Amino acid sequence: MLPTIQIHNLVLPTCKGVEVIDIAGIIRIKAISNYSKLILANGKTLVVAKLLRWFEAKLPADQFIRIHRTHIVNKNFIQQCINGKTGAIKMSNGELIDVARRKKVFFFQRWYNPVMKIDKPIPVVPMLYLCCTNKKAIMFFTT
What we know:
Elements: E1 9-14, E2 17-22, E3 26-32, E4 35-40, E5 45-48, H1 52-58, E6 64-68, E7 71-74, E8 78-82, E9 88-91, E10 96-98, H2 104-112, E11 127-133, E12 136-142
Antiparallel strand pairs: 1-2, 3-4, 3-7, 4-5, 6-7, 8-9, 9-10, 11-12
């Protein structure tokens, strides 16, 4: 079995030259068309000509989660999860980021259980609820 290599730095070409970024200092990455904007813990931002899928392939999956087609977040900087129809997360720098409806289950699975290797979201089994009001029984499914 081949040993796995953990990367700690990313070497990124920018308009000013080449930047070496410590991955532990990345709060989130936002897609801007064919560019990506890195928001760093030291307050700086960096725009590079790379797609989010490139970052998904390079960054460790146990630390970074893609929560939307435009966002990858570092789990270590998530402060709060706001539940709702889609949901949102509050990052340590105070930013609120929406979680896509289709990625919500996947996000919670990865956030709560980081050891699990998940390529696709585990299907959620609908729950049957019985509601009795005024001598009428109403059954409905929820996910």
